Structure formats: structure tokens, C-alpha cells
């Protein structure tokens, strides 16, 4: 009975993927199906990396008999996001198969095989099929010229065993769901690529969505061999992230010192306890951990540097350098208690990418002598409302007009549209109308009480309503801050010119990109005005209104 492929011995490097690694290694080694679909709804990027490592460890796997020749497995990998056109997809697959890297010194030519000149294999599907056959012949020629020559040779100069019997091509397409949007015409040729190329070939799709959402209509593509990847457990996620500890290979070896590796495992476990219910992606969790880890060990580094200075002072600079020591259990528990609250703040800021990890780490540096302070003084991660607009925060760098836009979006999402004239309109006496106070009424027996908007959440609003509310706010609270313009003598003319500037629409687009506002309609839809929704809370809107001296409570239809 044949033994399992050697790659299964390395499955410990991917906890939680042991069954997937064994199944895929067995299929690729002993006769793969022409089309495999790997579905991972949560961590497709991690799955693609595991599959790449597994396939790269299978250059030549044993056949059913130890005396039979071996088959060389060559892997081509492509990302459907980066390869957004057929030309990029075709040339990326062929270049990765043959190991060709275009260089600037040579003019970045494509791989042409044995043909003279810059021959292109990416013109269409037929040219791609010819390129696959040329790459297969090129790899077979390499095997013929570079046999295993360290074995016992016979009279004809051939080895008795371990000869390549052929070449098997494996093409991996990562994020394959993007093909349906960018290149739907390639789904059927890629699914039937073995039939078209007539080679020993297997195509593997790795996707976040199921095959039913990707497959072309009318049954044009054959049903693939399905591999469903189960979601990672918290323990496996911790093991995957902890195994990536860089150690001395990091840019700052002192931050990832080998003596702190055990503490790093406990720290990753703490990060997963806080963030695992929101995301299971190890890359996202590692990004949050990379932002908090330097501050987490800063008290230990400060103590180590202070101890070194004491040794240098006692020995006049001739003392030996002491290495960092692993912290005690009491120190570890105290660091966990002090930094636990800051992880929730890091998740809320870094997961939606409101800022980057480097800037967040600089703003949230722990104070000096943290471990020597009392419990009441050592507080990390407690954010007051006013500090949300402090130095280094995204909102602290907003222009004045962007703050007015956010306040206008909050009012548009909170107040009903029928209240705009009452709240922002002006009468004949040029005075602003006041909000009508809602009086408590007795609910009729069997009637239904209307739920306040603040409990229903923000509602979408059109762009023209946002511009109208913005104009009312600027006319009321921003006229005095502008430069005098004698040519604009009509009341409100200056404000109308301000809200019609391109910079207002650019600021709205920037706030939408920063996820402080959400666009609810698709950008390609041209029927009707674009719809938006506010993404800031009442507390944050109150802070912004204080910054620009706007009485927010007087502008709300329902009191918060």
C-alpha cells in the first residue's frame, strides 16, 4: 500500500487545515480531477497560502509502486484581483509555471519558449492554450536534460529509479469569484481547460463564495470537485498567528526578541478573545496585534533599559550587556489587565481602516513607568469623547467644512424629511423657525406607538437634501468666518456659491471613502440622486457640533 504524500508531514504549520492538506495532496499526487473548487467563506487568503505551500512541496511524488517513474508537479498561481484582464491572467499563469520574471534591463519581455522574438501567449484563449503546450514541452525538456544523476546508472546511462514520467500542471486561481464580474467569458474555458489543452492538467479555484454564485448559466461549465474548508477555531487561529513570530528577523529585533515569544503567544490569545467574535481572519487579527504589541511590551523594555543604565553607571560603562528576560507571571497578568481595554479601541479603529497601525500605535503609546503606578493611575484604552478629536485621530484632521457635512448627514439621517422646512426654514421676519416640541400623548387602546428614529438607526437620504441642510448650517453658523465679498449683496448668495463648489462634493467623497458616511446606491446607477447614510454616533456628532459652535439639540426633531 502506498504511503501518504510527504507534504502531510508539514500540515502542523497550518493548524485546522490538516484534512484539507491530506485530501488535496492525495488528489494531486495520484490523479487529480480536471477541476477543483475550494470554498472558504471566511479566510480564503489563508487557505490560498496553505494550498500554495502544499503544492510547492509536491515537485515529484511517488507513484503507486516504488519502482515506477515519478511525475513532476508544476504549479502556476494567479490572483484574480491583481490580474483583472485576460492578458494579465494568461501571462501570469504561464510565467509562474515556467518561473519567468520579466526584467527592466531586457525590456520586460514575455516568455516566448523556443520561439524567436517576443511571442505573446496572452492574445486570446487559443494563444493561451498554445502557451500551455509550449510550457509543458519546455518543462518536459528540462526533465529530460536534468534527470536524477546521483542514483545507480545502467549501461545506457539512465537511472534505475526516480525518473520523471511526465509533467503535471496545476493552475491555482485565487479569489475566483472576481472572474464573474471582470472576465465572465473565461469561466467556461478555465473549467474545461484540460479538455481544451489535452494535457495532464488540473485547475483549482479558491473562492469566498459558493460555486452556485460563480458558475456560468445553462450548465456550460462542468461541476467541479468540491472542497469545503471549515471555519478556523479560536485555538487554531492563535496557533497560526503565534507561529508567525518573526524573532530576530524583524526590523526591530528587540520588539520581537526570542525571550518574549511565550509572552507573544499569551498576547495573541488575549487579542483573539476580544476580536475573534468580529473577525476570524488571521491577517486582520495579526494586523491589530502588530499595532498593540510594541506598546504592550514597552514597560518591559523601559525596565530593561533602566537596569542597563544602572549597570553602566556602577561599572563605568564596562559592564556586560544583559539580555531581555521573560516576564514573570504576575507581570504578564498585570499587562493583560492594563491593555485589555485598548484592544477593543484598536478593533474599532483598525478593522475598518479608519487609520493605519503605525499611526495608531504612536497615538496610543502607554505612559512611562506604567508598571510602577497604582491601579487607579494606570489606565490604558479609556477614551473620553473630547479625545476622539485629538492629535493623530482621523477626525482631528478634518477641515471645518467636512465637520459641517458630517453634522448635516447626521441630521439628515435622524430627522424626517418633512421636518426640514420647520427646522431650517426662515420666515418673513428673517428668523429661523423653532422646532415644535413633541408633547406626550396618551396611546389609544390597541394602538401602535411610533418608534423614534434614534432607535431605528440612521436612514438614507438623497444628496440634494444633504446639500440643502449643509447650506442652512453654513448660512447660520459660518457666514462671519468668511472673507468679505461686497459683490455678493443678496442674502444667502455667498452660501449658495459655497455649497456649489467642487470641493464640497470632493469632501463628501472623501468622507465616504473614510467610512464616516455610507453610500447606499451603486456608483454606476444614474437614475435619481445618489443616496447616503450617516455613519457617526450621536456622541461624535455632539463633539463635532461643539467644535463648530452648533447647537445640535435644537436641530433634532426627536430629543436623543
From TrEMBL:
Q: Which InterPro entries match?
A: ORC5 (IPR020796), ORC5_C (IPR047088), ORC5_lid (IPR048866)
| Gene Ontology annotations of biological process type | DNA replication initiation
Origin recognition complex subunit 5 C-terminal domain residues: 398-555
Q: Name one GO molecular function term.
A: DNA replication origin binding
Q: Does the keyword Nucleus apply?
A: yes
Superkingdom in the source lineage: Eukaryota
Tell me which UniProt keywords the record has, alphabetically: DNA replication, Nucleus
Q: Where in the cell is it found?
A: Nucleus
GO annotation, cellular component aspect = nuclear origin of replication recognition complex
ORC5 lid domain location: 264-326
Major subcellular site: nucleus
* Matches recorded under Pfam families: ORC5_C, ORC5_lid
Among PANTHER family, the record links this protein to: ORIGIN RECOGNITION COMPLEX SUBUNIT 5 (PTHR12705)
Q: What is this protein called?
A: Origin recognition complex subunit 5 C-terminus-domain-containing protein
The organism named in the record is Ephemerocybe angulata
Name the lineage.
Answer: Eukaryota, Fungi, Dikarya, Basidiomycota, Agaricomycotina
Amino acid at each position: 500500500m502506498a504511503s501518504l504524500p510527504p507534504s502531510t508531514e508539514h500540515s502542523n504549520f497550518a493548524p485546522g487545515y490538516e484534512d484539507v492538506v491530506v485530501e488535496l495532496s492525495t488528489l494531486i499526487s495520484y490523479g487529480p480531477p480536471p477541476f477543483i473548487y475550494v470554498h472558504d467563506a471566511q479566510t480564503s487568503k489563508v487557505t490560498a497560502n496553505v494550498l500554495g505551500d502544499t503544492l510547492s512541496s509536491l515537485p515529484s511524488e511517488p507513484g503507486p509502486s516504488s519502482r515506477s517513474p515519478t511525475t513532476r508537479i508544476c504549479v502556476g498561481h494567479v490572483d484574480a484581483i491583481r490580474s483583472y484582464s485576460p492578458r494579465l491572467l494568461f501571462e501570469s499563469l504561464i510565467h509562474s509555471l515556467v518561473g519567468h520574471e520579466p526584467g527592466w534591463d531586457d525590456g520586460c519581455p514575455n516568455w516566448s519558449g523556443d520561439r524567436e522574438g517576443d511571442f505573446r501567449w496572452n492574445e486570446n484563449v487559443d494563444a493561451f492554450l498554445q502557451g500551455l503546450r509550449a510550457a509543458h514541452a519546455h518543462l518536459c525538456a528540462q526533465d529530460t536534460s536534468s534527470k536524477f544523476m546521483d542514483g545507480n546508472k545502467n549501461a545506457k546511462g539512465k537511472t534505475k529509479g526516480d525518473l520523471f514520467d511526465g509533467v503535471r500542471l496545476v493552475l491555482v486561481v485565487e479569489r475566483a469569484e472576481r472572474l464573474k464580474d471582470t472576465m465572465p467569458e473565461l469561466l467556461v474555458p478555465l473549467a474545461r481547460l484540460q479538455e481544451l489543452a489535452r494535457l495532464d492538467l488540473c485547475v483549482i479555484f479558491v473562492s469566498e463564495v459558493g460555486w452556485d454564485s460563480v458558475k456560468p448559466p445553462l450548465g456550460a461549465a462542468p461541476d467541479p470537485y468540491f472542497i469545503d474548508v471549515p471555519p478556523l477555531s479560536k485555538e487554531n487561529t492563535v496557533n497560526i498567528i503565534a507561529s508567525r513570530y518573526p524573532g530576530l528577523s524583524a526590523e526591530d529585533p528587540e520588539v520581537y526578541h526570542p525571550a518574549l515569544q511565550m509572552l507573544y503567544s499569551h498576547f495573541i490569545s488575549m487579542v483573539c478573545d476580544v476580536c475573534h467574535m468580529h473577525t476570524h481572519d488571521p491577517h486582520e487579527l495579526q494586523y491589530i496585534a502588530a499595532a498593540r504589541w510594541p506598546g504592550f511590551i514597552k514597560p518591559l523594555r523601559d525596565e530593561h533599559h533602566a537596569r542597563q543604565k544602572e549597570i553602566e553607571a556602577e561599572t563605568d560603562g564596562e559592564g556586560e550587556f544583559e539580555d531581555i528576560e521573560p516576564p514573570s507571571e504576575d507581570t504578564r497578568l498585570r499587562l493583560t489587565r492594563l491593555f485589555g481595554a485598548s484592544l477593543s479601541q484598536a478593533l474599532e479603529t483598525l478593522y475598518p481602516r479608519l487609520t493605519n497601525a503605525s499611526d495608531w500605535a504612536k497615538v496610543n503609546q502607554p505612559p512611562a513607568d506604567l508598571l510602577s503606578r497604582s491601579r487607579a493611575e494606570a489606565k490604558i484604552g479609556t477614551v473620553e469623547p473630547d479625545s476622539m478629536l485629538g492629535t493623530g485621530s482621523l477626525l482631528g484632521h478634518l477641515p471645518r467644512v467636512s465637520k459641517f457635512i458630517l453634522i448635516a448627514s447626521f441630521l439628515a439621517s435622524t430627522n424626517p424629511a418633512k421636518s426640514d422646512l420647520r427646522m431650517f426654514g426662515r420666515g418673513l421676519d428673517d428668523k429661523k423657525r423653532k422646532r415644535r416640541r413633541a408633547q406626550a400623548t396618551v396611546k389609544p387602546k390597541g394602538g401602535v406607538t411610533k418608534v423614534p428614529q434614534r432607535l431605528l438607526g440612521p436612514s438614507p437620504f438623497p444628496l440634494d437634501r444633504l446639500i440643502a441642510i449643509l447650506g442652512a448650517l453654513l448660512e447660520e453658523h459660518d457666514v462671519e468666518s468668511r472673507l468679505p465679498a461686497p459683490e455678493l449683496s443678496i442674502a444667502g448668495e455667498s452660501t449658495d456659491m459655497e455649497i456649489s463648489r467642487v470641493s464640497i462634493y470632493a469632501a463628501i467623497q472623501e468622507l465616504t471613502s473614510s467610512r464616516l458616511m455610507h453610500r447606499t446606491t451603486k456608483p454606476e446607477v444614474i437614475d435619481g440622486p445618489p443616496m447616503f447614510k450617516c455613519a457617526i454616533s450621536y456622541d461624535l456628532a455632539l463633539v463635532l457640533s461643539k467644535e463648530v459652535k452648533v447647537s445640535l439639540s435644537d436641530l433634532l426633531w426627536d430629543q436623543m
